[in-house]
Amino acid sequence: MVDQPVRRVFVPPQSGDPNPDQPPPLNPARITGVASGFMTAKALFVAAEVGLFAALPDDGATAETIAQRCQLPVRSARAIADLLVATGLVEHDGERYRNAPDTEAFLAGRGPLDMRAMLRYWDLVSYPTWTRASTAFRTRQGVRAEQLSEEQTRAYESSVALVTAETAADLAEAYDFGPHTRLLDVGGGIGTFAKPILRAYPRLTATLLDLPDVVDVARAEVAADAFADRLDLVAADVFVDPLPAGHDVVVVANFLHLFSPERNLELLARLAEVVAPGGRLLLVDWFRDPAAPHPATRLGSGEFLMISGGDTYEASDVTGWLDQTGWTPVEHLPLAAPAGLIVAERVG
Ligand SMILES: C[S@@+](CC[C@H](N)C(=O)[O-])C[C@H]1O[C@@H](n2cnc3c(N)ncnc32)[C@H](O)[C@@H]1O
After folding, report:
1. Does domain 29-114 have CATH number 1.10.10.10?
2. What is the reported pTM?
3. What is the whole-number distance in angstroms between the Cα of residue 278 and the centre of ligand 1?
4. Tens of pLDDT, residues 168-227
5. Comparing C-alpha atoms, which of 300, 283, 292, 290 is closest to residue 335?
6. Does ligand 1 come within 6 angstroms of the Cβ of 253?
7. Distance 255 CA to ligand 1 centre (A)
8. Separation of first and last alpha carbons in the chain
Protein backbone atom coordinates (compact mmCIF):
# COMPACT_ATOMS: atom_id res chain seq x y z
CA MET A 1 0.00 0.00 0.00
CA VAL A 2 1.19 3.48 -0.85
CA ASP A 3 0.91 5.48 2.38
CA GLN A 4 1.85 8.81 0.80
CA PRO A 5 -0.60 10.99 -1.10
CA VAL A 6 0.99 10.80 -4.57
CA ARG A 7 -1.51 12.33 -6.98
CA ARG A 8 0.71 13.98 -9.59
CA VAL A 9 2.16 12.16 -12.57
CA PHE A 10 5.00 14.59 -13.34
CA VAL A 11 6.86 15.43 -10.12
CA PRO A 12 10.14 17.37 -10.28
CA PRO A 13 13.16 15.67 -8.69
CA GLN A 14 13.64 16.37 -4.95
CA SER A 15 15.90 19.30 -4.24
CA GLY A 16 18.02 19.65 -1.10
CA ASP A 17 19.53 16.90 1.05
CA PRO A 18 17.33 13.82 1.55
CA ASN A 19 16.29 13.14 5.13
CA PRO A 20 18.38 10.09 6.16
CA ASP A 21 15.71 9.04 8.69
CA GLN A 22 12.93 8.76 6.11
CA PRO A 23 12.67 6.85 2.84
CA PRO A 24 12.43 9.23 -0.15
CA PRO A 25 8.83 9.95 -1.18
CA LEU A 26 7.49 7.74 -3.91
CA ASN A 27 7.73 9.34 -7.35
CA PRO A 28 6.20 8.01 -10.61
CA ALA A 29 9.20 9.29 -12.62
CA ARG A 30 10.62 5.80 -13.26
CA ILE A 31 7.30 4.69 -14.79
CA THR A 32 6.85 7.78 -16.95
CA GLY A 33 10.50 7.46 -17.99
CA VAL A 34 10.15 3.87 -19.17
CA ALA A 35 6.70 4.40 -20.71
CA SER A 36 7.81 7.43 -22.72
CA GLY A 37 11.00 5.65 -23.72
CA PHE A 38 9.64 5.19 -27.23
CA MET A 39 9.61 8.98 -27.66
CA THR A 40 13.15 9.31 -26.39
CA ALA A 41 14.27 6.39 -28.55
CA LYS A 42 12.78 8.04 -31.62
CA ALA A 43 14.48 11.35 -30.77
CA LEU A 44 17.77 9.45 -30.50
CA PHE A 45 17.22 7.81 -33.90
CA VAL A 46 16.40 11.14 -35.54
CA ALA A 47 19.42 12.79 -33.89
CA ALA A 48 21.72 10.10 -35.31
CA GLU A 49 20.01 10.27 -38.72
CA VAL A 50 20.45 14.06 -39.07
CA GLY A 51 24.02 13.96 -37.75
CA LEU A 52 23.33 15.85 -34.51
CA PHE A 53 26.07 14.11 -32.49
CA ALA A 54 28.64 14.57 -35.25
CA ALA A 55 27.64 18.25 -35.37
CA LEU A 56 28.49 18.89 -31.69
CA PRO A 57 32.12 19.96 -31.16
CA ASP A 58 33.92 19.61 -27.81
CA ASP A 59 32.92 23.12 -26.74
CA GLY A 60 29.30 22.49 -27.71
CA ALA A 61 26.85 24.26 -30.01
CA THR A 62 23.73 26.37 -29.62
CA ALA A 63 20.33 25.20 -30.86
CA GLU A 64 20.71 27.66 -33.76
CA THR A 65 24.03 26.13 -34.82
CA ILE A 66 22.67 22.59 -34.50
CA ALA A 67 19.66 23.60 -36.58
CA GLN A 68 21.86 25.01 -39.31
CA ARG A 69 24.30 22.05 -39.35
CA CYS A 70 21.55 19.42 -39.30
CA GLN A 71 19.14 21.29 -41.57
CA LEU A 72 16.37 21.35 -38.97
CA PRO A 73 14.02 24.09 -37.77
CA VAL A 74 15.54 25.67 -34.62
CA ARG A 75 12.59 24.61 -32.47
CA SER A 76 13.10 20.99 -33.59
CA ALA A 77 16.84 21.12 -32.89
CA ARG A 78 16.08 22.39 -29.38
CA ALA A 79 13.29 19.86 -28.77
CA ILE A 80 15.47 16.89 -29.81
CA ALA A 81 18.48 18.13 -27.86
CA ASP A 82 16.36 18.78 -24.74
CA LEU A 83 14.87 15.27 -24.89
CA LEU A 84 18.40 13.88 -25.04
CA VAL A 85 19.56 16.13 -22.18
CA ALA A 86 16.92 14.41 -20.05
CA THR A 87 18.65 11.06 -20.76
CA GLY A 88 22.14 12.38 -20.04
CA LEU A 89 23.34 11.62 -23.59
CA VAL A 90 23.62 15.34 -24.29
CA GLU A 91 24.69 17.97 -21.75
CA HIS A 92 23.42 21.56 -21.62
CA ASP A 93 24.95 24.53 -19.80
CA GLY A 94 22.00 26.84 -20.36
CA GLU A 95 23.16 27.94 -23.80
CA ARG A 96 25.25 25.29 -25.53
CA TYR A 97 24.66 21.58 -26.01
CA ARG A 98 27.56 19.10 -26.02
CA ASN A 99 27.93 15.30 -26.25
CA ALA A 100 28.35 13.33 -23.02
CA PRO A 101 31.58 11.27 -23.12
CA ASP A 102 29.82 8.01 -24.11
CA THR A 103 27.83 9.79 -26.83
CA GLU A 104 31.03 11.29 -28.23
CA ALA A 105 32.73 7.86 -28.19
CA PHE A 106 29.94 5.82 -29.80
CA LEU A 107 27.60 8.08 -31.77
CA ALA A 108 29.67 10.94 -33.22
CA GLY A 109 31.40 8.75 -35.81
CA ARG A 110 34.88 9.62 -34.57
CA GLY A 111 35.31 7.37 -31.51
CA PRO A 112 36.44 3.77 -30.91
CA LEU A 113 33.08 2.24 -31.96
CA ASP A 114 30.35 3.63 -34.21
CA MET A 115 26.93 2.37 -33.05
CA ARG A 116 24.87 4.35 -35.53
CA ALA A 117 24.27 1.25 -37.70
CA MET A 118 22.42 -0.36 -34.81
CA LEU A 119 20.28 2.74 -34.22
CA ARG A 120 19.42 2.75 -37.91
CA TYR A 121 18.25 -0.88 -37.74
CA TRP A 122 16.24 -0.27 -34.58
CA ASP A 123 14.64 2.75 -36.23
CA LEU A 124 13.89 1.30 -39.67
CA VAL A 125 13.05 -2.30 -38.74
CA SER A 126 12.67 -2.98 -35.00
CA TYR A 127 10.62 0.07 -34.10
CA PRO A 128 7.79 -0.62 -36.56
CA THR A 129 7.96 -4.34 -35.76
CA TRP A 130 7.51 -3.80 -31.99
CA THR A 131 4.18 -2.03 -32.59
CA ARG A 132 2.85 -5.61 -32.90
CA ALA A 133 4.59 -6.89 -29.78
CA SER A 134 1.36 -7.86 -28.04
CA THR A 135 0.51 -10.35 -30.80
CA ALA A 136 4.04 -11.79 -30.72
CA PHE A 137 4.10 -12.24 -26.94
CA ARG A 138 0.66 -13.89 -26.97
CA THR A 139 1.24 -16.21 -29.94
CA ARG A 140 5.06 -16.78 -30.02
CA GLN A 141 4.88 -15.95 -33.74
CA GLY A 142 7.20 -13.41 -35.36
CA VAL A 143 5.56 -10.15 -36.39
CA ARG A 144 8.24 -8.55 -38.58
CA ALA A 145 7.19 -7.69 -42.15
CA GLU A 146 7.61 -10.71 -44.46
CA GLN A 147 9.52 -8.65 -46.98
CA LEU A 148 12.05 -5.99 -45.98
CA SER A 149 12.98 -3.20 -48.39
CA GLU A 150 16.57 -3.16 -49.66
CA GLU A 151 17.30 -0.27 -47.27
CA GLN A 152 15.89 -2.26 -44.33
CA THR A 153 17.81 -5.40 -45.35
CA ARG A 154 21.05 -3.43 -45.45
CA ALA A 155 20.27 -1.81 -42.09
CA TYR A 156 19.55 -5.22 -40.51
CA GLU A 157 22.64 -6.95 -41.88
CA SER A 158 24.93 -4.00 -41.01
CA SER A 159 23.63 -3.92 -37.47
CA VAL A 160 24.04 -7.70 -37.06
CA ALA A 161 27.59 -7.43 -38.42
CA LEU A 162 28.37 -4.61 -35.95
CA VAL A 163 27.28 -6.83 -33.07
CA THR A 164 28.74 -10.16 -34.25
CA ALA A 165 32.12 -9.15 -35.76
CA GLU A 166 33.95 -9.57 -32.44
CA THR A 167 32.50 -13.07 -31.96
CA ALA A 168 33.42 -13.98 -35.55
CA ALA A 169 37.04 -12.98 -34.92
CA ASP A 170 36.96 -15.01 -31.67
CA LEU A 171 35.68 -18.09 -33.51
CA ALA A 172 38.45 -17.93 -36.14
CA GLU A 173 40.95 -18.02 -33.24
CA ALA A 174 39.20 -20.37 -30.83
CA TYR A 175 38.42 -23.23 -33.22
CA ASP A 176 41.02 -25.06 -35.33
CA PHE A 177 39.69 -25.14 -38.90
CA GLY A 178 43.03 -26.70 -40.02
CA PRO A 179 41.65 -30.25 -40.45
CA HIS A 180 38.74 -29.00 -42.61
CA THR A 181 38.60 -28.30 -46.33
CA ARG A 182 35.11 -26.94 -47.04
CA LEU A 183 32.92 -24.75 -44.84
CA LEU A 184 29.17 -24.13 -45.08
CA ASP A 185 28.02 -20.91 -43.36
CA VAL A 186 24.24 -21.17 -42.85
CA GLY A 187 22.47 -17.80 -42.56
CA GLY A 188 25.88 -16.27 -43.19
CA GLY A 189 24.58 -12.71 -43.66
CA ILE A 190 27.17 -10.46 -45.28
CA GLY A 191 30.08 -12.79 -44.55
CA THR A 192 30.94 -11.60 -41.04
CA PHE A 193 32.00 -15.13 -40.00
CA ALA A 194 33.24 -16.45 -43.35
CA LYS A 195 35.66 -13.54 -43.81
CA PRO A 196 37.95 -13.92 -40.76
CA ILE A 197 37.90 -17.73 -41.09
CA LEU A 198 38.91 -17.68 -44.78
CA ARG A 199 41.53 -15.03 -44.02
CA ALA A 200 43.07 -17.22 -41.28
CA TYR A 201 42.87 -20.50 -43.26
CA PRO A 202 44.10 -20.00 -46.87
CA ARG A 203 43.44 -23.64 -47.88
CA LEU A 204 39.78 -23.50 -46.87
CA THR A 205 36.96 -22.83 -49.33
CA ALA A 206 33.44 -21.89 -48.26
CA THR A 207 29.78 -21.59 -49.18
CA LEU A 208 27.70 -18.81 -47.63
CA LEU A 209 23.97 -19.61 -47.70
CA ASP A 210 21.36 -16.94 -47.03
CA LEU A 211 18.04 -15.66 -48.35
CA PRO A 212 18.15 -14.15 -51.87
CA ASP A 213 17.82 -10.46 -50.82
CA VAL A 214 20.67 -10.86 -48.35
CA VAL A 215 22.90 -12.69 -50.83
CA ASP A 216 22.50 -9.71 -53.18
CA VAL A 217 23.85 -7.43 -50.43
CA ALA A 218 26.59 -9.94 -49.47
CA ARG A 219 27.78 -10.22 -53.08
CA ALA A 220 28.64 -6.52 -53.13
CA GLU A 221 30.20 -6.70 -49.63
CA VAL A 222 32.65 -9.53 -50.40
CA ALA A 223 33.41 -8.76 -54.07
CA ALA A 224 36.61 -6.83 -53.30
CA ASP A 225 37.94 -9.24 -50.66
CA ALA A 226 41.16 -11.14 -51.41
CA PHE A 227 39.44 -14.48 -50.74
CA ALA A 228 36.32 -13.77 -52.84
CA ASP A 229 37.30 -16.58 -55.25
CA ARG A 230 37.17 -19.07 -52.32
CA LEU A 231 33.64 -18.11 -51.28
CA ASP A 232 30.51 -19.30 -53.12
CA LEU A 233 27.26 -17.49 -52.39
CA VAL A 234 24.06 -19.55 -52.45
CA ALA A 235 20.62 -17.91 -52.31
CA ALA A 236 18.32 -20.37 -50.54
CA ASP A 237 15.85 -20.85 -47.72
CA VAL A 238 17.54 -23.39 -45.45
CA PHE A 239 14.19 -24.85 -44.35
CA VAL A 240 12.82 -25.29 -47.87
CA ASP A 241 15.44 -25.53 -50.60
CA PRO A 242 17.85 -28.43 -51.25
CA LEU A 243 21.03 -27.88 -49.21
CA PRO A 244 24.47 -27.98 -50.81
CA ALA A 245 26.50 -31.10 -49.96
CA GLY A 246 30.26 -31.71 -49.73
CA HIS A 247 31.04 -29.65 -46.62
CA ASP A 248 33.00 -31.06 -43.67
CA VAL A 249 32.32 -28.15 -41.28
CA VAL A 250 29.11 -26.13 -40.90
CA VAL A 251 28.85 -22.82 -39.05
CA VAL A 252 25.41 -21.76 -37.82
CA ALA A 253 26.00 -18.40 -36.17
CA ASN A 254 23.33 -16.27 -34.51
CA PHE A 255 20.65 -18.26 -36.28
CA LEU A 256 19.04 -20.70 -33.81
CA HIS A 257 17.84 -17.75 -31.71
CA LEU A 258 15.64 -16.63 -34.61
CA PHE A 259 13.45 -19.73 -34.51
CA SER A 260 11.27 -21.87 -32.27
CA PRO A 261 12.66 -25.11 -30.78
CA GLU A 262 10.60 -27.10 -33.33
CA ARG A 263 12.14 -25.23 -36.28
CA ASN A 264 15.62 -25.68 -34.83
CA LEU A 265 15.13 -29.44 -34.56
CA GLU A 266 14.05 -29.42 -38.21
CA LEU A 267 17.15 -27.41 -39.20
CA LEU A 268 19.63 -29.60 -37.33
CA ALA A 269 18.09 -32.75 -38.84
CA ARG A 270 18.31 -31.26 -42.36
CA LEU A 271 21.97 -30.37 -41.84
CA ALA A 272 22.74 -33.90 -40.59
CA GLU A 273 21.49 -35.21 -43.95
CA VAL A 274 24.12 -33.29 -45.96
CA VAL A 275 27.17 -33.72 -43.72
CA ALA A 276 29.19 -36.98 -43.79
CA PRO A 277 29.98 -38.86 -40.53
CA GLY A 278 32.79 -37.11 -38.66
CA GLY A 279 31.80 -33.70 -40.08
CA ARG A 280 31.59 -30.88 -37.56
CA LEU A 281 28.77 -28.48 -36.71
CA LEU A 282 29.69 -25.20 -34.97
CA LEU A 283 26.75 -23.51 -33.28
CA VAL A 284 27.58 -19.96 -32.25
CA ASP A 285 24.91 -18.06 -30.38
CA TRP A 286 24.01 -15.98 -27.35
CA PHE A 287 23.32 -18.63 -24.75
CA ARG A 288 21.15 -17.60 -21.84
CA ASP A 289 22.58 -18.07 -18.36
CA PRO A 290 19.39 -18.78 -16.34
CA ALA A 291 21.00 -17.64 -13.04
CA ALA A 292 22.11 -14.26 -14.36
CA PRO A 293 20.88 -13.43 -17.87
CA HIS A 294 23.29 -11.11 -19.69
CA PRO A 295 21.70 -7.73 -20.61
CA ALA A 296 22.06 -8.61 -24.29
CA THR A 297 20.15 -11.87 -23.88
CA ARG A 298 17.35 -10.04 -22.06
CA LEU A 299 16.95 -7.72 -25.06
CA GLY A 300 17.44 -10.60 -27.48
CA SER A 301 14.60 -12.71 -26.07
CA GLY A 302 12.12 -10.02 -27.11
CA GLU A 303 13.75 -8.93 -30.34
CA PHE A 304 14.28 -12.47 -31.70
CA LEU A 305 10.65 -13.31 -30.92
CA MET A 306 9.49 -10.24 -32.87
CA ILE A 307 11.65 -11.12 -35.88
CA SER A 308 10.57 -14.72 -36.44
CA GLY A 309 9.32 -16.38 -33.26
CA GLY A 310 12.76 -17.00 -31.70
CA ASP A 311 14.25 -16.74 -28.22
CA THR A 312 17.61 -16.87 -26.46
CA TYR A 313 18.20 -20.50 -25.53
CA GLU A 314 20.20 -22.19 -22.83
CA ALA A 315 23.14 -24.34 -23.93
CA SER A 316 21.34 -27.39 -22.47
CA ASP A 317 18.35 -26.76 -24.81
CA VAL A 318 20.71 -26.93 -27.79
CA THR A 319 22.61 -30.05 -26.71
CA GLY A 320 19.22 -31.73 -26.21
CA TRP A 321 18.28 -30.90 -29.83
CA LEU A 322 21.64 -32.24 -31.08
CA ASP A 323 21.08 -35.57 -29.35
CA GLN A 324 17.76 -35.95 -31.22
CA THR A 325 19.01 -35.05 -34.70
CA GLY A 326 22.09 -37.14 -35.49
CA TRP A 327 24.79 -35.03 -33.81
CA THR A 328 27.02 -35.72 -30.81
CA PRO A 329 27.89 -32.66 -28.71
CA VAL A 330 31.71 -32.46 -28.40
CA GLU A 331 32.45 -29.29 -26.42
CA HIS A 332 31.06 -25.92 -25.30
CA LEU A 333 33.50 -23.01 -25.41
CA PRO A 334 32.81 -19.48 -24.18
CA LEU A 335 33.35 -16.66 -26.68
CA ALA A 336 32.88 -12.93 -25.90
CA ALA A 337 29.91 -12.97 -23.47
CA PRO A 338 27.10 -13.75 -23.91
CA ALA A 339 28.25 -15.65 -27.01
CA GLY A 340 29.34 -19.27 -26.86
CA LEU A 341 30.32 -22.05 -29.25
CA ILE A 342 28.82 -25.52 -29.14
CA VAL A 343 30.77 -28.00 -31.27
CA ALA A 344 29.04 -31.17 -32.44
CA GLU A 345 30.07 -34.08 -34.66
CA ARG A 346 27.97 -35.98 -37.16
CA VAL A 347 27.27 -39.40 -35.71
CA GLY A 348 28.78 -42.23 -37.85
C1 LIG B 1 21.15 -12.75 -37.12
S2 LIG B 1 21.64 -12.92 -38.76
C3 LIG B 1 23.23 -13.72 -38.54
C4 LIG B 1 24.19 -13.44 -39.67
C5 LIG B 1 25.58 -14.03 -39.45
N6 LIG B 1 25.54 -15.47 -39.27
C7 LIG B 1 26.22 -13.39 -38.25
O8 LIG B 1 26.20 -14.01 -37.18
O9 LIG B 1 26.75 -12.27 -38.38
C10 LIG B 1 20.64 -14.25 -39.34
C11 LIG B 1 20.79 -14.47 -40.81
O12 LIG B 1 20.00 -15.62 -41.16
C13 LIG B 1 19.38 -15.36 -42.39
N14 LIG B 1 18.18 -16.22 -42.51
C15 LIG B 1 17.02 -16.11 -41.82
N16 LIG B 1 16.16 -17.06 -42.21
C17 LIG B 1 16.79 -17.80 -43.15
C18 LIG B 1 16.40 -18.93 -43.91
N19 LIG B 1 15.18 -19.49 -43.78
N20 LIG B 1 17.30 -19.44 -44.80
C21 LIG B 1 18.52 -18.88 -44.94
N22 LIG B 1 18.95 -17.81 -44.23
C23 LIG B 1 18.09 -17.28 -43.35
C24 LIG B 1 19.06 -13.88 -42.33
O25 LIG B 1 18.81 -13.35 -43.62
C26 LIG B 1 20.31 -13.32 -41.67
O27 LIG B 1 21.29 -12.96 -42.60
Report:
1. yes
2. 0.94
3. 25
4. 999 999 999 999 999 999 999 999 999 999 999 999 999 999 999 999 999 998 888 888
5. 283
6. yes
7. 6
8. 64
